[in-house]
Design a protein that fits this description.
It is a single chain. It is built from 5 helices and 4 strands; from the N terminus they run αβαβββααα. The chain is α+β, with helices and mostly antiparallel strands. It has one domain (27-42, 53-195). It has a 4-stranded mixed beta sheet, with helices on both faces. The protein is globular, with a radius of gyration of 18 Å. The chain starts with 13 loop residues before the first helix and ends in an 18-residue tail after the last helix. Residues 1-11 and 39-54 have low confidence and may be disordered.
C-alpha cells in the first residue's frame, strides 16, 4: 500500500484519511497528502455586508451572483474542488499526489458571502495558486498566501475592511507563535509585526 505523508500543523481530517486509505487499497490512492490549515479568528460575530461600496452592486442577489461566479472562475483556473463548505470562519487546503502523476487539489472553506468569508476562501485558493512549500518557514508561506488573497480582493473590488485585517493579523500571530515554539529563531523581516498580539 502506498505511504501517505501528512504535513502541516495538524493531520488531515479522519474522513480524508479514510478516503485516501480506501483508494490506496485499490492501488489508485495518493502517495502523499499536503495539508494547510487556516486559523480562525476569535470572537468575530457574523455581520451582513454593508450596502453599496462594491462595483457589482449592493443587493444581496447581486453579491451572491458575484461570489458564485468568483468561486467557479477560481475552481476552473486552479483546477481545485470544494471538499466541503464550512459554517465557521476557517478553512483547509489539501493536495493529494498520485503515483501516476495526478494531483488532486481540494479546499474546505466558508462559502463567500462577505469580505471575511471571501478572504478565507481566497486564502485557501492561494495555497494552490502559489504552491505548497514554495516559501520557508511555514509562517512565511502563510504571509505570502495572504498577500495573494488581498491582491485578488482588491482586483475584484472586495473591500479589505477592518474585520478582514483583524482576521489576518490574528492568523499571522498564531503562525509566527507556532513557528517560534517549534524552534524558529530568525524571524523573517516581513513577520516582525506579528510578534505581538494584535488585539
Amino acid at each position: 500500500m502506498p505511504e501517505i505523508e501528512s504535513t502541516g500543523f495538524s493531520n488531515p481530517p479522519a474522513s480524508l484519511r479514510a478516503e485516501s486509505e480506501r483508494e490506496c487499497r485499490t492501488g489508485e490512492g495518493p502517495v502523499s497528502t499536503e495539508v494547510r490549515n487556516f486559523r480562525p479568528a476569535l470572537d468575530l460575530p457574523a455581520r451582513p455586508m454593508p450596502q453599496g461600496g462594491m462595483s457589482f452592486g449592493g443587493t444581496l442577489r447581486n453579491r451572491r451572483r458575484f461570489y458564485d461566479a468568483m468561486v467557479e472562475e477560481l475552481k476552473d483556473k486552479y483546477k481545485i474542488a470544494i471538499r466541503r463548505w464550512r459554517r465557521v470562519m476557517s478553512g483547509v487546503a489539501y493536495e493529494l499526489k498520485y503515483r501516476d502523476g495526478r494531483i488532486k487539489r481540494l479546499i474546505t472553506a466558508p462559502r463567500p458571502k462577505s469580505p471575511v468569508s471571501a478572504a478565507i476562501f481566497l486564502h485557501e485558493v492561494g495555497h494552490h495558486a502559489i504552491g505548497f512549500r514554495r516559501y520557508s518557514p511555514r509562517c512565511l508561506e502563510e504571509y505570502y498566501v495572504w498577500q495573494w488573497a488581498f491582491r485578488e480582493m482588491t482586483a475584484r473590488n472586495i473591500p479589505v475592511d477592518p474585520r478582514v485585517l483583524r482576521h489576518y493579523r490574528r492568523s499571522m500571530f498564531h503562525y509566527v507563535r507556532m513557528a517560534r515554539k517549534r524552534g524558529l529563531v530568525e524571524i523573517p523581516d516581513e513577520l516582525h509585526e506579528f510578534l505581538v498580539w494584535p488585539g
